[in-house]
């Protein structure tokens, strides 16, 4: 839930500061879009840190038209062309789960975060693709997955489709209204049967504590930054499992955390990011 994400509607009934990750686009796409053969100038160093190979979307949003990515498959094809989607497995699940069903307003098929209410957003599609690619080997049929900060329910639904009815996908979120909305969204999607049979579920819970009831997990995704990796999440990660989590305070890294077969932990940095803190619901709902 990155600070540079699109803001939720000012008329939203709550003031919680929860929001997904910021949008960004590859520079070669922007050059083609603008008809310029030269590389766009880099953003000032004070702007939001970038994901590797990306430039900030919010500076270029004015150049989009709805016709540019008006279909879910066209969006996935775009993500494939520019390297965010690298495998057939991730392409298939993103084509199956229609992003439009999880975006209450706005244009769902552009590579940008979109507001979902309560000052929260659904992450940009390239961020969903990045996380799915990092976790795909730990989202095999029959495996267990945890999505911390599940928001609209989109990524949790993707997890559920990948682990299948014999697996388990759990989304946890601080805001009860977002949990209710996620349930409604999923019921309209291809993941609806998995919700009905209980292999996909959403819960109001403190993300720092995980969700022990369905642990251990082969895959854990965290959508807010922690100063350090929460021990309960490490404890709930299965040996040979993987967690993707932003770690840090002002300067943060998207970390890939692997628990080895002997229980030891290996960590590597995948990207520089800036996310809102992983904190209590009361802290998130305070006035800015």
Present the secondary structure layout:
Layout: E1 24-25, H1 27-34, E2 55-56, H2 72-81, H3 88-96, E3 114-117, E4 120-122, H4 125-135, E5 144-148, H5 154-163, E6 168-173, H6 176-187, H7 192-196, E7 200-204, E8 217-222, H8 231-236, E9 237-248, E10 252-259, E11 265-273, H9 281-284
Parallel strand pairs: 5-6, 5-8, 6-7, 8-9
Antiparallel strand pairs: 1-2, 3-4, 9-10, 10-11
Describe it.
- There is one protein chain.
- This protein is an alpha/beta fold and 288 residues long.
- The protein is 26% helix and 22% strand.
- It has helices at 27-34, 72-81, 88-96, 125-135, 154-163, 176-187, 192-196, 231-236, 281-284; strands at 24-25, 55-56, 114-117, 120-122, 144-148, 168-173, 200-204, 217-222, 237-248, 252-259, 265-273.
- The strands form 3 sheets. A 7-stranded mixed beta sheet has the order 7-6-5-8-9-10-11. Strands 1-2 form a two-stranded antiparallel ribbon.
- Helix 5 links the parallel strand 5 and strand 6 (168-173).
- The longest helix is centred in the middle third of the chain and has 12 residues, at 176-187.
- The chain is globular.
- Mean pLDDT is 78; it is low at 2-69.
- It holds the Pfam family PCMT.
- It comes from Urochloa decumbens.
- Residues 38-47 have a biased composition (Pro residues).
- Belongs to the methyltransferase superfamily. L-isoaspartyl/D-aspartyl protein methyltransferase family.
- It catalyses: [protein]-L-isoaspartate + S-adenosyl-L-methionine = [protein]-L-isoaspartate alpha-methyl ester + S-adenosyl-L-homocysteine.
